[in-house]
Amino acid sequence: MIIRNAWVYTPDHHFTQKDLIFDGPYIRTQTANPAEIDASGLYAIPGLIDIHLHGCMGHDFCDAAADTLNAMAAYQARNGVTGFIPASMAFSEKKLSGIFKNAARRPQETGAMLLGVNMEGPFLSEAKKGAQNGRYLVPPDISMFRRLNAVSDGLIKLVTLAPELAGAAEFITALKDETVISLGHTEACFETAAQAFTLGASHVTHLFNAMPPFNHREPGLIGAAFDHPSVTAELICDGVHVAPAMIRAAFKLFSAGRIVFISDSMRAAGLGDGEYTLGGQTVQVCGNRATLADGTLAGSVTNLMDCLRNAVAFGIPLTDAVQAAAVNPARVIGESDRLGSLEPGKLANVVLLDKRLNVVKIFIKGIAVS
């Protein structure tokens, strides 16, 4: 397959008009396949990677149903998200074990690639639990994590914890080389967060949300993350969780190389208004807002491609938005050797967009998504 004359997103984060070639599932410098697409006037970007979402199209990762992951993968693929990491919620170890076992036994995949699982809970602060169910919150537990990672067949790519909890330092020290440790749902002060990053935490769960604000006398987790240049930070760009001005400020504060767009979507994504559930709790969806009965935001109802479009509408350059939605997520989860850029040898996960950022064509491992 040869995609002719596209504006191709390059590894140095620019667009260059050229041909993009792939043969079978991989991007190549030449191909025996004579099929061509005239992509004049179109952008060619790496497939997006959502490393934090809970559900879509009426499905939730925590349902642990036989068709859940395939249904989620199909929706993501249709929207230019070619890889995803679904997130759990705070539940009992028994419930989480069933959820992760279901991920481990997913059959031959179609749609977006399942790249792992995200363990969001139960090692969270009661005061900053957000839409998580407080009855299941527990201190960080190394043995529990390892049991759950074993039943998931090693799929847990990220785990969120509040660093002020008892046992957090020991958890980070023991597991920093086994998974990405992300700080979030926390009341941590600057010093506590900074110590956690020094010990090996390297990521922030949905920056600005479920954490103290960035204050001039108490910079908190946000200031500590800024002070550690290797730390990456998630942003929900649904137009609800974080104001446009703060999206722009985050890019100035952290740079495009450290921001990771996520959707944090729940099961209502792709559907309409109504009553849904998240983590066993009732959620009311109205327009682009999903809330618990007390008004607490309960995930988003968008997808990552819409988040990218929102970011551009908010004033983020398209090159930076692509970096945050495709390149950086691949790096965070250790998949940069095969995903996140359109270089020879990488998987041919490609999205063609028109100038208004509408999806024109999607390829996953070189195969067009219908």
The CATH topology assignment of the largest domain is: TIM Barrel
Structural class: alpha/beta
Q: Any guess at the CATH architecture of the largest domain?
A: Alpha-Beta Barrel
Helix content: 25-40%
Distance between the termini: 16 Å
Q: Give the CATH class of the largest domain.
A: Alpha Beta
Overall shape: it is globular
Approximate strand percentage:
25-35%
Oligomer status: single chain
pLDDT averaged residue by residue: 96
Radius of gyration based on Cα positions: 20 Å
In CATH terms, the superfamily of the largest domain is Metal-dependent hydrolases
Instruction: Show unreliable segments.
Output: none
Would you report the number of β strands?
A: 22
Domains counted in the coordinates: how many? 2
SS element count, helices: 9
Pfam family, one: Amidohydro_1
Protein name: N-acetylglucosamine-6-phosphate deacetylase
GO molecular function: metal ion binding; N-acetylglucosamine-6-phosphate deacetylase activity
Pathway: Amino-sugar metabolism; N-acetylneuraminate degradation; D-fructose 6-phosphate from N-acetylneuraminate: step 4/5
